[in-house]
Design goal:
Layout lengths: L1 H13 L4 H5 L8 E2 L18 E5 L27 H13 L2 E5 L8 H4 L4 E5 L8 H12 L3 E5 L10 H6 L5 E14 L13 E11 L7 E7 L21 E8 L2 E6 L16 H16 L7
Parallel strand pairs: 2-3, 2-4, 4-5, 5-10
Antiparallel strand pairs: 1-9, 6-7, 6-8, 8-9, 9-10
Length: 301
Amino acid sequence: MRIALVTLLVGLVLSPPLVAENLGDPDYGVCRGTDARCYHDWGNFDPADGYRLLVYSRTAGPRHAHLGTPLGPGLNPPLNDNNVAVKAVVELGQENGFAVDYTEDVTQLASAGRLLSYNAVMFLSTTRDTLDDPAQTALRQYIRAGGAFIGVHNAFGTEYNWPWYEGLLGNANFYDHSAHQPGVVETVNTRDVSTRGLQQRWNFSDEWYNLVPFPTRVRVLLEVDETTLPRGVRGSLGHPGHGKHHPVSWCQYYDGGKAWVTTLGHDVKAWTDEPLEGDQFFTQHLLGGIRSALGMAPFCR
């Protein structure tokens, strides 16, 4: 009897903890990280149906120049010449085999069933409280059903007081940014579809985001070398930067879905044919992230 009890106790000590304990997140109460067991593959997306992306760019605060004038209601309203970022994503879809719808109408995000007609949803420089209660619920249900989220630039300046959304960003949030200036981006992961073929170091211009909190349990894809910023990394609210490792793009599985995010994309030139050093690498990186989130290529390698 004593031997059996000792054997049982040893087994309990040596046995690995439950998967939920390994992968659960104490801060956000979800399964998140780089382990694909956090993904819900419920068969909601059939490649035979093609690939569709919904771009959401509603702003409830400051509006970036690359978004241009606010869009009209409904789905796919007419675009103006200055809506350069949305137009660029639409063109990427036309050139690379995926359909793109776009909107700034929150009612278009009010139903998880409607969102499930898209392989991924992109928040493109949204700002502040850009979702109402029905849209928040729909987004969470969509992600939990195996949907994918793409966050670009000021997607980090959105829904500040919603912890679940902060977790979707990788346990990260925008705090402040440096001056808009050139810097050197370092490709720290070359296996992912969004980084494959990029130079190890490449020049780019942006307003380099400082983050509070700092991303955790994610796969970092790109970083900025703070020593290359001529005007320094210190932000307008005094953030001193992140030192040797300052991430600007990363990916993770989150609460059943997928999330690929980048803080890059501030400069209007990054979205147009106007020359900007390194813009071809930014476009290549973004396209790879979109394709992996849509399911056209492996995700978060």
